[in-house]
Amino acid sequence: MSERVKYLLGEDRIPKAWYNLVADLPKPPPPPLHPATGKPIGPDDLAPIFPQAVIAQEVSTERWIEIPEPVREIYKLWRPSPLIRARGLEKALDTPAKIFFKYEGVSPAGSHKPNTSVAQAFYNKEEGVKRLATETGAGQWGSSLAFAGSLFGLEVEVYMVKVSYGQKPYRRALMETYGARCIASPSPLTAAGRAILEKSPDSSGSLGIAISEAVEVAAGRDDTKYALGSVLNHVLLHQTVIGEEAMLQMADAGVDPDVVIGCAGGGSNFAGIAFPYIREKLAGRSHARIVAVEPTSCPTMTQGRYAYDYGDTGHLTPLVKMHTLGASFVPPGFHAGGLRYHGMAPLVSHVLELGLIEPRAYAQTACFEAAVQLARTEGIVPAPESSHAVRAAIDEALRCKAEGKSETILFCLSGHGHFDMQAYTDYFAGKLKDVPFDRAALDRALLELPVVDEN
Questions:
Q1: How many domains does the chain have?
Q2: Would you say residue 162 lies in a domain?
């Protein structure tokens, strides 16, 4: 009898609600602060850039938030996503560990991002919004919002980090195919972009800069709102469909994970796979170690400071307490563009401070080595971002081999790398190098952190 590889769920088992981890934490996360007053922000402060339904989710302490039926109907295009037992990888590693991955690359845009882009587009459409402005790093979020905008008849304007704009032309083409406008950031179209270009005409850009441009556009027009693909609570909330489905599928496989892994840049796919398992840990129903993996070139959790900081380089956003490298820090141009954000999601940062997760950092060549091994054993080419989770999963499996332990490893394969093949070409040609961050620049950025009275 052949051994089972895929664990699938019917469309009737798509989660009916998103899970809000805030409801179960032993200590509430620090509140976002108004940049001018230093006081906690209220819903009215967010109204210029977000629709009311999204604002309500951002500040909610309810455990479960119902997924609107129109959103669940669109989810059926790719959800529930498959859980796959990586038997080929297990054999190649000669490990006693069982390796499973939740594969989000089956979505139309090729990553986990539509889990939130569809929800955000729905809520904006319901409130009469005509246009959405956003940023994107590697382009997964930009293409996902473009996809969602096309379904709901919304114009979408995407500010794409300039280094990724050049590296990933087919991501731009995908956004344009869905009807969005894609602009290299920093751009001359906004005051924030022009200010950066005046100081650094050859700036490679950063997510912090691109956020400033998108927020400026949204705040300046009554018909436009801002949508973002990671970091804030409502985005992490929408991604929990990943973990909720994974729990059902792991139960179908008859195992519980000993290790749960996700790559982490802003924190969205990591939260999606991890937050439901953190709930189970807090309730005493799981013993899983939960590992968040970031790049050594942008090490917010392993090298950053836990402090209040701006979410963008232009200081247009509220102050949030997070692990940060400083809003002015520009990471080097490594290929995992979706992991180049200067901060980590405040809620992910909070659970790290509570000791509920383990951070880990890898250089990009080690991650590409792991990605190639997965491709040659399982047939799926991972996105550079996702390769960080693959690297950690392989290392955990090799640890099990060395220790003679048969543990169960679950990781989120957050997207495919079909638009990232130039990075693989560079890797095979030996051109892909491990790019260290500028320590002096990091130190300067941390000196610029805002002074906040938390009493």
A1: 1
A2: no
